[in-house]
Amino acid sequence: MTCHSISTTSLLIQAYNHFVHFVQHAKYQKEKKQEGKNAQDATNKRISKNRERLRDAQKEFAILNKFPQRYVDILSHIGAHSDDKHDERKNVYKIKTLVYCSKNASKFIRALDIAMKNAAEQDPSSNQKRRVHQLPRQPVISTFTAAPKRLPIDFYDPSWYHKLVPAQQKTIPDTHNVAFLPDASQSLLPKKQRHPDEKLTDRSFTRKYWDILVEPYGLLGEDSSDDSDDEEASPEGMAKSTGNNSEGEGHDLDDESPDESPDEYFEEGEAGDLYDDFVEDDEEGDDEEEYNANEGDEDDDEDQDEQYGDSFENTEDVHMQD
Q1: Is residue 27 domain-resident?
Q2: CB 188 within 8 A of CB 58
Q3: For residues 274 and 258, what is the distance between their CA atoms, to the nearest angstrom?
Q4: How many CB atoms lie within 10 A of CB 81?
Q5: Which of 59, 130, 151, 165 has a CA 20 to 30 Å removed from the CA of 115?
Q6: Parallel, antiparallel, or unpaired: how do β-strands 92-94 and 133-134 relate?
Q7: Where are the alpha helices (DSSP H) in the chain?
């Protein structure tokens, strides 16, 4: 009995020394150098955990439903997910806008939100535990600015891409592949409604949509690059131009102010018109007509495309666990 007490006391002393002279001392030194550092670290740790949870849930859902590998690869990167903040008043997670993420990529994530929501509705137990993520009508910019590397070029925002130094333009994005439909809101629909091109192999998909999707990045040649720098690849420049002409166009004073909206959030999976200016519809249509005209010359790709076949399941029939 005496030996046990001595041993226990010895362990308590060691634990005390470690906590006071190491753990607390390290926190004291951090706070001494920068006030509020410990609280900031705790917040960042919590945010990182939330991002990991979101990443794991979306990646698992994509694998269970046998989404194309290019989708799974993107969802596997934690940097592809926003650091959503919990709104206790609404009991939802406020989606933040990643500065490096293209609007079309954001459309895809919203389509994924809808697919996961529909699947959860068929599983009441998982639906009760599911975290609801909604986009605020007034975008909130994320504090995370380090972009994930080697994702297809159309994942990245064109204006953000053009601000990179040449070396980073070559090392951060994958400038040889694209991943999303020109209108990514058409992605991940139920089986009978899904877009047929989602079944294409990565190579075939890139070949079909390359010209449409990379034009804003100036990757179609020197002439296209010059044009995109001046016009398409610089939404900020377009915004300034619009601002300069706003007096001539005028404003409808009867329109509802965004700040006066009856609800500060869009419905889950919805984004209003926040992501509507990435790719012009008429360009998409022209490209599809050209592709269909040459479709007979690509029989070798059809064999490869069969690897997806009908394995891309109806997302309404598969349950989610988040």
Answers
A1: no
A2: no
A3: 12
A4: 26
A5: 151
A6: parallel
A7: 2-18, 24-33, 37-64, 69-75, 103-120, 124-129, 158-162, 166-171, 202-214, 222-227, 235-244, 246-249, 281-293, 299-305
Nearest CA to 94 out of 276, 299, 213, 268 is that of 268
Count of domains forming the chain? 1
Domain assignment of residue 98, yes or no: yes
Which residue has 């997910």 as its token pair?
81
Give, as one character, the DSSP assignment of residue 129.
H
Span 76-96, pLDDT tens digits = 999 999 999 889 899 999 999
pLDDT: which is higher, 35 or 296: 35
Query: Is the model more confident about 20 or about 225?
Result: 20
**What are the distances in angstroms from CA 91 to CA 73, 94, 105, 132, 251?**
30, 9, 25, 8, 35
Please count the other Cβ atoms lying within 10 Å of the Cβ belonging to residue 200: 21
At residue 93, φ and ψ (nearest 5 deg) are -100, 120
In a domain, 314, yes or no: no
Least confident of 167-171, 225-229, 257-261: 225-229
Find residue 92's DSSP bridge partners: 87
Domain with 148, as residue range(s), is: 41-217
What is the reported pLDDT for 129?
A: 75
Q: Residue 204 corresponds to which amino acid?
A: S
pLDDT of residue 128: 67
- The tens digit of pLDDT for each residue in 24-39 reads 878 778 787 888 877 7
